[in-house]
From TrEMBL:
The lineage of its organism: Bacteria, Pseudomonadati, Pseudomonadota, Betaproteobacteria, Burkholderiales. Keywords: Membrane, Transmembrane, Transmembrane helix. The keyword Signal does not apply. This is Bifunctional diguanylate cyclase/phosphodiesterase. The keyword Nuclease does not apply. Residues 24-278 form the EAL domain. It comes from the Bacteria.
């Protein structure tokens, strides 16, 4: 009977696993092509606002327009890029796209405040990858006044202990760092203290609906207090509701980002946001 069951489950699951694997490999192949193509990958920019609703910075977010499938979500292609190693090339391409966009705005007489770029741990692990990343920053002349980096809180935070940690290298060069999706990962207060990041980004899981949720409110209030005690700025992600904005402002949250303010905008929508009147 067991043999029969085994055979049944073999027949039941293998085609599905095969299909998932096939899709993943196809995505990887297409992403590799996209990195060569140079008209498929772009950046969108989402503004970050202070309590007075002034724009203080932007987060750059990768966008991929697949020639057949159309827009593919980063939630789908970033994990594939990370597991295939393509994230290294994607990270370098992202910097080049940012440089191109900054130059085109500058040519229109517009200057852009600080842009936050997401950095995967997979880009930080190997010395040769770190070296290429630093070289790309240098070649493109993207300095600490132009960009900062966001690192998602994860189990890899343990790597921060190592004295040659890339985090410390970037900080030594003057770049600011933000801990992304804070509250969903594994970082301890000891790590927060050791790495001394500039910003703490509270994940939208805690932010959305917080004004009506006493538990979320208490948690976010504590995170704001902890961050400020460590001289970090607090950024709330995923702010969608006016009541949540008001609550966050009352708590002393420094910056806010979310659909309630502005969705990520493509590069050609940026001039409108960068005009001095709007800044
Ligand atoms: P993230 O870094 O936490 O970026 C914020 C995500 O939340 C973005 O999704 C943004 O569009 C979305 N978001 C912003 N405001 C709201 C809101 O009010 N409500 C909701 N529901 N969502 C909101 P996106 O662009 O799909 O990116 C997803 C993730 O993919 C990012 O999360 C980041 O971890 C990763 N990612 C995106 N671009 C890059 C990149 O260039 N490099 C790397 N390594 N990762 C990237
Ligand atoms: Mg981010
Ligand atoms: Mg993230
Ligand atoms: Mg985030």
């Amino acid at each position: 009977h067991a043999k029969q069951l085994g055979k049944d489950s073999f027949q039941l699951f293998t085609p599905q696993i095969g299909e998932a694997l096939r899709l993943r490999l196809a995505l990887e192949r297409d992403l590799r092509a996209a990195l060569q193509a140079d008209d498929q990958l772009t950046l969108a920019y989402q503004p970050q606002y202070d309590a007075q609703r002034r724009i203080r910075g932007f987060e750059a977010l990768a966008r991929w327009r697949h020639p057949q499938r159309g827009w593919v979500s980063p939630a789908e292609f970033i994990p594939v890029a990370e597991s295939s190693g393509l994230i290294v090339e994607l990270g370098l391409a992202t910097l080049a796209l940012l440089r191109r966009d900054l130059d085109s705005w500058r040519a229109s007489g517009l200057s852009c405040p600080l842009v936050a770029v997401n950095l995967s741990w997979e880009q930080c692990r190997k010395p040769q990858h770190r070296e290429r990343f630093l070289q790309q920053l240098k070649t493109l002349q993207l300095g600490p006044a132009d960009i900062e980096f966001e690192l998602t809180e994860s189990a890899d935070f343990e790597d921060i202990d190592k004295p040659d940690s890339f985090v410390f290298t970037l900080q030594g060069l003057g770049y600011g760092l933000a801990i992304d999706d804070f509250g969903t990962g594994y970082s301890s207060l000891a790590y927060l203290r050791r790495i001394r990041c500039r910003k703490l980004k509270i994940d939208r899981l805690f932010v959305h609906g917080l004004s009506a949720n006493p538990e979320s409110r208490t948690l976010v209030e504590s995170m704001v207090r902890v961050a400020h005690a460590m001289r970090m700025l607090v950024v709330a992600e995923g702010v969608e509701l006016p009541d949540d904005e008001a609550t966050l402002v009352a708590m002393g949250c420094d910056l806010m980002q979310g659909f309630g303010f502005c969705r990520p905008v493509p590069a050609d929508g940026m001039p409108e946001l960068l005009r001095p009147a709007a800044a």
